[in-house]
Design a protein that fits this description.
With 702 residues, this protein is of the alpha/beta class. The chain has 3 domains: 297 residues, no CATH class; 183 residues, Periplasmic binding protein-like II (D-Maltodextrin-Binding Protein, domain 2); 178 residues, D-Maltodextrin-Binding Protein, domain 2 (3-Layer(aba) Sandwich), CATH 3.40.190.10. Helices cover 24% and strands 22% of the residues. Strands 10-12-14-16-18-20-22-24-25 form a 9-stranded mixed β-sheet, with no helix packed on it. Strands 11-13-15-17-19-21-23 form a 7-stranded parallel β-sheet, with no helix packed on it. Helix 9 packs across helix 10, helix 9 packs across helix 11 and helix 18 packs antiparallel against helix 19. The longest helix has 15 residues. The chain is globular, with a radius of gyration of 30 Å. 50% of the residues are buried.
């Protein structure tokens, strides 16, 4: 007789090597999960029958369903039958002398297979019980999980408890209890058998490997089981919006409970409880059982032959192996789940060449609105995918849409924004030295002088970036001009109605060179064009410099950002303190097919990004109705609110070099534009400011 060490969880259904599911009586509505949750490590004897647990709550029988999901031969890959489903009653005995009640399942908890491996793992959960005691034998170290889900550690189990605000919490390779408590949390179990409690708020719970219990709690949650046998409980979200509960690759038990939910079993033989609302139940691959609420019985999940999937090809600037690319893929995969849609995504080599090529992608994403206008003849009017021509303007503001529109047709729309007029610093270092956040550019210069006097190096400012070397310098100049002259003047300069040689533009270049050439201002001044721009992160981490001007996307480069913060790059004039400058990524579509339209409408809706993108620091969702409280970190939320305020005041402006023709503001084929190359020559001392400005004006096309 062999014994297996398994995880036993007791909370809102009972799942074992067979699966015991306590459910509602025929006349009762599906209850919301409440009461205590228990967990422990248990040695299970595969030949023991019946399995017995002790539960409180009186002697009334509770309906149950027994589902044979054992990991032995019965459900080998070649098995053709459904799991065995038996129904009956859980009998609760009167308390014995010690006050213990014993629960059996009509003596029916027996295996249908004779394989000695049949009792491999056991998860047990109950609906409304208030106490539990192990009666299976073995280790017997139950832990009362309601303590963890109320913020109390459980002895003997690694417990990670959130702060009550937004948390991103990750478990260890061993067993973990992770409790997000209040706020919109992201919880990841990683390896091991884990219990994840979302608590209040809109939470995302990822079980990972192992046998996991995921409890969403209140709010709109997303629960994703992962690769092991999992139990997902959606909680009591009563809103009209849906929760998504996605099982993963193994045997899963999924409870939607209250609210309108989407239950996705994925691979494996799954059990789905939709609850009393209008739920979407999709068992996915495998042989699945779905609970019929009206009849209070289990049935085979309906299997409809899937419609032929339509393939949509997408290209963009994100590496699919890195966080931004992974997040986009997660959003798209969640969107196509259960739909007759498929997609491919590739990181593109060149946006204009891809769109103008002989086999263009269906959807392409570019960080340069100027490039969108370069391919306007090869893309479709996005307004055609919506009810009227005002939808995109109402969703993203007139200013952003004007960058990719000719006044009647709209050739692109933003899916990502970044904020560029920010300065990274370490608050603890500022506090230790007594430095204050400057409110004007003059105060920033004075702060830099003070730092030099204190033998601190104010700035890290490496600018090497291959053929795009020098682009960080253009960002400095753009905000020095916007913060001095305001939005209207900036717009005229970006469109070349104001020349580069204009006095105000000349002064912005001079101020930039002041920040580069003042002795002691910049770390490693002689190598600014030789070290890659991302090396600035090393200087900040090491304390070699006090500040670095870089966009919100720098969060992904900096990595550990807990010790850092940002402040708004101060304007030259206080009157322009409400201005902000940023960049963004725009999508275009090359055909008007219905499948492409479905993707476009999804990627341009207010809730796009809620699945995974919100957890990428620095990715700002530009839809004006996006709920900024959904972001996974407070820094990105603050940047998003700053962008929103600037847009509302009509003081947000796009990175001007991205609006300019490629001959000036980006790559002109294999060659850098005149603005970028001008920065390189200024930093190298090869040309003067007046020479660079005149040369840029001369190279402006047309």
């Amino acid at each position: 007789m062999r014994k297996r060490l398994g995880l036993v969880l007791l909370a809102s259904l009972t799942l074992s090597s067979v699966l015991l599911v306590a459910g509602p009586s025929a006349a009762a509505a599906v209850p919301s999960p409440k009461g205590k949750v228990y967990a422990g490590i248990e040695t299970v004897d595969p030949d023991q029958s019946p399995n017995v647990v002790t539960i409180g709550k009186g002697a009334n029988p509770v309906p149950f369903v027994l589902i044979d999901y054992n990991a032995g031969n019965c459900l080998s890959p070649n098995a053709k039958r459904l799991p065995v489903i038996l129904s009956g009653l859980v009998n609760v005995s009167a308390p014995d002398g010690s006050g213990v009640r014993t629960v059996t399942a009509d003596g029916a908890i027996t295996m249908q297979c004779t394989n000695s491996e049949k009792a491999t793992w056991q998860i047990e959960l109950s609906l409304e019980y208030y106490s539990a005691q192990d009666r299976l034998g073995g280790d017997g170290n139950w832990a009362e999980m309601n303590r963890a889900c109320n913020g109390q550690p459980v002895p003997g189990i690694n417990t990670i408890i959130g702060t009550g605000g937004k948390n991103t919490l990750a478990g260890t390779p061993q067993m973990d209890i992770i409790d997000g408590r209040g706020g919109n949390d992201t919880l990841r179990g990683n390896g091991g058998h884990d219990i994840l409690c979302g608590g209040n708020g809109a939470d995302k719970l990822y079980g990972g490997g192992g046998i996991d219990l995921l409890i969403g709690g209140k709010g709109r949650d997303g629960l994703f089981g992962g690769s092991g046998m999992d139990a997902l409980i959606g909680g009591d979200n009563k809103a009209k919006i849906r929760e998504t509960l996605k099982g993963g690759d193994s045997v899963d038990v999924i409870f939607g409970w209250l609210g309108k939910d989407k239950l996705l079993g994925e691979a494996g033989n799954d059990v789905l409880f939709g609850g009393p609302k209008a739920d979407i139940l999709n068992g996915g691959k495998g042989r699945d059982a779905c609970f019929d609420v009206a009849a209070s019985v289990f049935k085979m999940c309906e299997k409809k032959a899937p419609a032929p999937a339509t393939l949509v090809t997408i290209v963009g600037p994100y590496n699919p192996a890195e966080p931004e690319g992974q997040a986009l893929l997660a959003e798209l995969e969640a969107f196509v789940a259960g739909k007759p849609l498929e997609f491919t995504y590739e990181q593109m080599d060149g946006f204009i060449a891809d769109v103008h090529g002989g086999n263009p992608p269906d959807i392409a994403i570019t960080p340069q609105p100027g490039a969108v206008m370069e391919v306007a003849d090869a893309v479709v009017d996005l307004n055609g995918f919506f009810a009227n021509n005002n939808v995109l303007r109402n969703s993203f503001s007139d200013y952003l849409i004007d960058q990719v529109s000719d006044g009647s047709e709209t050739f692109g729309a933003p899916i990502k924004a970044t904020l560029k007029n920010i300065v990274w610093y370490r608050p603890s270092a500022f506090a230790a030295a007594g430095y204050s956040i400057p409110a004007t550019f003059a105060e920033l210069v004075a702060l830099s002088d003070t730092m030099v006097a204190n033998e601190h190096t104010p700035w890290c400012n490496y600018m090497e970036s291959g053929p795009a070397t020098g682009w960080p310098g253009t960002d400095w100049i753009e905000y020095l001009l916007l913060g001095a002259k305001g939005g209207s003047y900036y717009d005229d300069w970006a469109s070349h109605d104001v020349l580069f040689a204009a006095p105000a533009v000349d002064l912005a270049f001079d101020r930039f060179m002041q920040m580069v050439d003042t002795p002691g201002y910049v770390l490693d001044r002689d190598n600014l064009l030789n070290e890659h721009v991302w090396v600035n992160a090393e200087g900040l981490h090491a304390g070699d410099c006090m500040m670095h001007k870089q966009g919100s996307f720098f969060a992904g480069i900096l990595g550990e950002i807990d010790d850092f913060d940002t402040f708004a790059f101060p304007p030259v004039k206080v009157a322009h303190s409400d201005t902000a400058i940023g960049s963004g990524d725009f999508l275009v579509a090359t055909n008007e097919s219905e499948a492409v339209g479905e993707f476009v409408r999804f990627m341009l809706k207010a809730k796009f990004g809620e699945t995974a993108i919100v957890d990428v620091p620095g990715w700002i969702l530009p839809h004006v109705n996006f709920d900024t409280s959904r972001y996974g970190d407070s820094m990105t939320e603050a940047w998003a609110n700053q962008v929103s305020a600037a847009i509302a005041a009509d003081q947000f402006r796009f990175d001007a070099s991205d609006l300019m023709p490629p001959e000036v503001g980006s790559m002109n084929g294999p060659n850098p534009g005149a603005f970028w190359s001008g920065i390189v020559d200024l930093v190298n001392g090869d040309r003067t400011v007046p020479q660079v400005l005149q040369d840029i004006d001369n190279q402006w096309p047309g």
